Amino acid sequence: MKFRAKINDVGCLNHFTRVVNTITKLTKTCVVRLTVDNIFFVLSGKVANGGVSMWCELLQVNFFDEYQLEGVSEDANEICLEVNPENLSRALKTAQNAKSVKIKLTKKHYPCLTLAAELPSLSSISRVVTHDIPVDVIPRRLWHDFKEPSMPDFDVSIYLPPLKTMKSVVDRMKNLSNYLVVEANLSGEMNLKIETDLVSVTTHFKDLGNPPWGASQSQSQSRDVEAMAHARVDIRKLQQFLMGQQVNPTKSMCNIVDKRIIHLILLQEDVSLQYFIPAVA
Amino acid sequence: MDCVATGGNVKVLAKAIHSLSRIGEELYLEPTEDGLTLRAVNSSRSAFACFLMTPLFFQRYQAPPDQALRCKMPIKSVQTVFRSLSSLERSVEKCRIEMNTEQSRLRITLHCKHGLLKTHNLSFQDCESLQAVFDKDSCTNMLRAQPRLWVDTVLHFPPSLEEVSVSVSSDRVWLRNHVEDDADSSKAMMTELCLSSEEFDHFAIGSQTSITFCLKELRGLLVFAETAGLPISMYFDEPGSPVVLSVSDSVLEANFVLATLSEDAHQRNHNNNKADGPRAGLPPDDFMCDDIDSYLIAMETSDLAGPSYEPQPQSSSTNHKSRLLSEEEDEEEESVERPPNKKFCSLFFGSVLPASSQLTNQTVQSQEVLASDSEDERQSD
Lengths: 281, 381
Prior knowledge:
The structure holds two protein chains of two kinds.
Chain A: E1 2-7, H1 10-26, E2 30-34, E3 38-43, E4 53-59, E5 66-70, E6 79-83, H2 85-93, E7 100-107, E8 111-119, E9 127-134, E10 136-137, E11 156-159, H3 163-174, E12 179-184, E13 190-195, E14 200-205, H4 218-221, E15 229-234, H5 235-244, E16 251-257, E17 261-267, E18 271-278
Antiparallel strand pairs in A: 1-5, 1-7, 2-3, 2-6, 3-4, 4-18, 6-10, 7-8, 8-9, 11-16, 12-13, 12-15, 13-14, 16-17, 17-18
Helix pairs in contact in A: 1-2, 1-5, 3-5
Chain B: E1 2-6, H1 8-21, E2 26-32, E3 35-41, E4 47-53, E5 60-62, E6 71-74, H2 75-81, H3 85-91, E7 92-100, E8 105-112, E9 117-123, E10 125-126, E11 130-131, E12 141-145, H4 147-155, E13 163-168, E14 172-177, E15 190-196, E16 202-205, E17 209-214, H5 215-228, E18 232-236, E19 243-248, E20 252-258, H6 263-272, H7 292-295, H8 327-331, E21 350-351, E22 369-373, H9 377-380
Antiparallel strand pairs in B: 1-5, 1-7, 2-3, 2-6, 3-4, 4-20, 6-10, 7-8, 8-9, 11-22, 12-16, 12-18, 13-14, 13-17, 14-15, 18-19, 19-20, 21-22
């Protein structure tokens, strides 16, 4: 098992840092899956983390100038590590103006992702800072937990309003209730609402547009365009998602499986982030 | 005592107070012919800080005729006077400090713009002199660098980190976070920063060594040095003997004396962390000349046992210089907050005697009286 990657470009470094920061806001630990072409940050929906799951996919070639990987075996040419993204984020933060950053898998007293940054200095010799981030290597028999989640057979898919707007709405609603109902239909309308004994608040969004998913989603094709699909979710999970995101997506959308789950997708040229929040009764 | 500081020096004074507040709970004030000294010591007496503002620092400086005037007060109350640095800078024109011994009041008057006067009367207690004895000139190692370098260095370590290890070789300095043996070190991120000697204004290493001390006080001094724009000098010997951080210019001097972990503790740490210690034998810069295979590792996913890291059992505090107090100090023991039961308790105060036979490899020097701190609380009651 070998892994080594290097970033020379400060733009790529900042971009990678933003992705990691976003992940950090979403979860305390996650699994980093390294393959020849991609890096994945994965959180599988365990009860312990409230059933939330996450799947973030990066195209390595868009971030790294050098990238060498030798997986567990030839037929499974990949590496799965459990890592605390906060550590990674902190290490990257101290490497912000680095001339180059190397990330490699090392074995110290325990397996580590070692991040070494070459920093500008006052002299001709660079400063070098290295961070040994402890990781757990995930044995192959557990890999099945960290496969890409399949797209749920959703009832409604809709583009999200600007995330900042959504965030300010959700932030305010959080003061009133612990649960929020997300509902949307196929004519570009989405509502965020809370209902408590004392107050009901709904924010309506219009003309958001519905992404064309093709004929594969037959269920949504035959659906009444005005009918709302809805899911009641833990407002903190949604807030966490809106608060942490730093990737400035070119597209953001939400799929709703009625009363089951909401599936949030952020798309950028070379990054995609999917976040699943289960509905509660 | 009656002294007046003006302009930028008010801010310097304020920063000095803020720095001292990171060390201890009480401010020890002693006006002498040589200037006004401000001192603080932490509760475990493993850190001591002293600022000397010479008479030239002040626009007017009048030492008390009675030389024995020494007092202490809660540093929080003094900090309150200088709380907002930005408003100090904007509006305060001068600051007058007077001591009224009859009323046991220290009066600090801030003369602000538009003729506004802010007067603070602080009560104080008489006390004996507080002074750590150290001789930084006899230290074998000395590093001096601009505050910027120290700030940039400290930035790489998390704010929660308590202790940092500094290792030196003839041309390099390594800093790394020190993780206690009993901490869950398998979960801690280890950070190491390597600096070239060229980055230092002055780099004199007599012996390759590695010392571990608290980062908090260094951060405290940085608060001061950065505003004052003064380089920080670091004087140190072997592990276990204090490190002195010092800044000075023509009108003021500050010395921070900090305990370092003693040798045996260090040794254990070295054994546990192979990466530790000055690595003179290694290629000068392994980051630059790395060849992929030298770094990559072979790990079996199925068998993760490997040579696992097991922290050695925590040895008793006798491995370290124990907290030893002079007799006078013992008298006030009841009134002093017990120091945290931490292994990090090298001392500069009181007569330091070897606590047990385990301290055999300590220098004779440590048996001398390093300092006398003979305050008498009863007097002030």
